[in-house]
Amino acid sequence: MAVKMQTQHGVIEIDNDVIATIVGGAATDNYGVVGMASQNPLRDGINQVLNGDNFSKGVVVRQTETGISVEVHVIVGYGMKISEISKSVQSRVKNDLNVMLGIVANEVNVTVQGVRLLG
What is the CATH number for 98? Predict the structure, then answer.
């Protein structure tokens, strides 16, 4: 499924894998985020940290009438303040989607799938 945007010149379709890659990159660039986690840890492996090729497994994108809703699954570092990391991820994801793709994210839900020791 792709996100469709109507412009004066026609329709633009952006595939969910493109959005997932941008969202995953924005999420993992935040201090305290160790990596992305799978949205289905039992199928993909409970302790697996996703790399750039697999960001789509850790991001769920849904299109609404006024924009998109994004769900991000992350693993954070031990000893970090989870609420602050989550707010930072939300802000960064919204900003990057708007700047890079011109998409307004109405919701960015962050699910912390695990905690890892840094180092």
Answer: 3.30.70.1350
- Residues 13, 19, 22: CA angle, nearest 5 degrees: 140
Question: DSSP assignment, residue 8?
Answer: T
Q: 28 Cβ partners below 8 Å, 6+ apart? A: 35, 36, 74
Do 110 and 74 form a contact (C-beta atoms < 8 A)?
A: yes
pLDDT of the residue at 38: 79
Domain assignment of residue 74, given as a range: 2-116
Whether the predicted model's global pTM rises above the 0.90 cut: no
pLDDT tier at 52 (50, 70, 90 boundaries)?
Answer: low
- pLDDT tens, residue by residue, 78-118: 998 999 999 999 999 999 999 998 888 999 999 998 888 86
Alpha carbon distance 104, 95 (integer Å): 9
**Rg (Cα) of the chain, in Å, rounded?**
14
